[in-house]
Design goal:
Blueprint (H helix, E strand, L loop, with lengths): L2 H17 L15 H6 L6 E14 L2 E8 L2 E8 H4 L1 H8 L6 E10 L5 E12 L15 H6 L1 H7 L1 H23 L3 E2 L5 E2 L11 E4 L4 E5 L4 H10 L3 E9 L11 E10 L3 H20 L3 E4 L2 E4 L5 E4 H7 L8 H10 L9 H8 L12 E4 L11 E2 L2 E5 L1 E6 L2 E8 L4 H18 L25 H4 L4 H8 L5 E7 H8 L22
């Protein structure tokens, strides 16, 4: 039977119910325990009241069985005509797969030892007008899965488990940080100036104030103001936005963890991120070793380290190397780059490190200061920033540094950054605190309006002038970490509702 025909039959059933004065979308129902809990705490003859979605029906004569499902699992239900009566039994027979029902009855085990509810009363709670994906595993079209995640959950149990595990990951990160005395805070998502990270922002307009605002690229500058305020250990699990490309590792809306600790430094953040990720792996997987996309990941400390500055020096490159020479060096390594700014060139060099981090985490340290405008420089070499990026499974997962707290130097770097952007007419790929490096940095589509031209955040610089303690800062790309721990090939597989091209609907 065609799905359209099935929908029409269901609609006819809906109208029939209404003609019988049966409201097919019921009120609250007293469900106290999940189906999984009922199964786990089975007691013969125990009276229970529960609810869920019908996922299978079978039977003949005056005896019918069905599967009832909720987010925790399933349980079998049984209806006997001689027990519930002819009319209620026929009512159940006319229900469709996908309908939500509430049931009351007693628990028992069948001859095959399956835990079952002997239904004494059944209530229709919501009529499904569209047929579900067939056999609960028939939803194969990836595009449909992403667009209709609710069907993906219904049809694919492994998908449901991934997102339950993702939720546990967030809980684990919070628990680990709170164990170390960190306070969770919230900062604005609409910024008057796009800052704290590089990238093309999403632009919106506030009608009452008649001002242009930007969805945040990162919460960094606000969080540092809280260090100025005297909050010494803070973190934010935040949603940030980049108006840039999509790929298996990039989504325009993504989740970051940003952590700041006063009186600490880059080395402290290295220890912290190692602990956070190891704690998460033990909590979710019960091990520090697991398979990710055919490769074994091993988090067993110590993690490997490589110096960015030294690697560049081995290629004959320094912060003073002309752009053309950098291009030539990259091309010899098989990285094709044309028409990019100096800072973008250096970001692309990071691709050289990703293949080295397939099985063992890799800290890439000693980035050039010129591509780290918010990081403190090494005391013995001003051209090198006290910074690292962490790669695991061939992906950049985290970024951290000793925070620059010199307001005069911070202003100088902001001015230099602004000059490069203005002079080149392109978005410089400087900071990616989240570890979510975007691909294909490009010039803005339209000339920058006046608010965009004033890119220096004067409020942030002023806050630094009141004094910010030395601090370590850490950013973790939560979506990528979830991809790794849950063995998912695409960032879309760990985001409930990833951004997709609008669907064409024909009426």
């Amino acid at each position: 039977m065609e799905r359209q025909e099935q929908s029409e039959i269901r609609y006819e059933k809906l109208q029939a119910l209404k003609r019988q004065n049966i409201y097919p979308y019921g009120a609250a129902f007293p469900k106290a325990e999940s189906l999984q809990q009922l199964v786990a705490h089975f007691s013969e003859g125990l009276s229970v009241t529960t609810a869920g979605r019908l996922s299978a029906k079978r039977g003949h004569g005056g005896l019918s069985f069905a599967d009832l499902r909720d987010a925790s699992g399933k349980i079998q239900i049984c209806l006997k005509q001689e027990r519930v009566g002819a009319e209620p039994y026929q009512f159940f027979e006319n229900l469709d797969l996908g309908d939500f029902v509430g049931v009351e009855g007693a628990l028992f085990k069948t001859k095959t030892e399956e835990i079952t509810i002997q239904v004494s009363r059944l209530t229709l709670l919501a009529k499904a007008l569209r047929p579900l994906p067939e056999k609960w595993h028939g939803l194969k079209d990836v595009e449909v899965r992403y667009r209709r995640r609710y069907l993906d959950f219904i049809a694919n149990e492994p998908v449901r488990r991934v997102f339950l595990q993702r939720s546990r990951l967030l809980s684990c990160l919070r628990a680990s940080l709170e164990r170390h005395g960190f306070l969770e805070v919230e900062t604005p998502m609409m910024h008057p100036i796009p800052g704290g990270a590089a990238g093309e922002p999403f632009v919106t307009h506030h009608n009452a104030l008649d001002v242009e605002l930007y969805l945040r690229l990162a919460p960094e500058l606000y969080l540092k103001q809280l260090l100025v305020a005297g909050l010494e250990r803070i973190y934010e699990l935040n949603r940030s936005f980049r108006n840039e490309g999509l790929s298996t590792q990039h989504n325009p809306e993504f989740t970051m963890l940003e952590v700041y600790a006063a009186y600490q430094d880059c080395a402290s953040m290295m220890n912290l991120v190692q602990e956070l990720i190891c704690d998460a792996a033990r909590n979710l997987l019960g091990s520090l070793q697991w398979e990710y996309q055919g490769k074994m990941i091993d988090l067993t400390p110590p993690w490997d380290r490589v110096s960015f500055a030294q690697t560049m020096a081995d290629m004959g490159l320094t912060p003073q190397t002309p752009l053309e020479s950098m291009q030539q060096a990259l091309q010899k390594k098989g990285v094709q780059v044309k028409g990019l700014s100096r800072s973008q060139m250096v970001r692309l060099i990071e691709q050289l490190f990703e293949p080295k981090a397939k099985s063992k985490p890799l800290f890439v340290t000693d980035y050039w200061t010129e591509i780290s405008p918010l990081a403190k420089s090494k005391p013995d070499d001003f051209s090198i920033a006290d910074r690292f990026e962490l790669f695991i499974g061939g992906m950049e997962v985290a970024n951290a540094y000793s925070e620059l707290n010199d307001p005069i130097e911070q202003r100088r770097r902001f001015e230099a950054q602004l000059q490069e952007r203005s002079g080149l007419g392109a978005e410089g790929c400087f900071e990616k605190r989240s570890g979510l490096r975007v691909g294909g940095c490009r010039p803005p589509r339209t000339p920058s309006p006046e608010p965009r031209a004033k890119m220096i955040d004067e409020g942030f610089v002023e806050a630094l002038e009141y004094g910010m303690p030395p601090a370590g800062g850490l950013g973790v790309g939560v979506d990528r970490l979830a991809m790794l721990l849950l063995n998912q090939p695409s960032i879309k597989d760990v985001i409930l509702f990833p951004l997709l091209k609008p669907e064409s609907r024909h009426t």
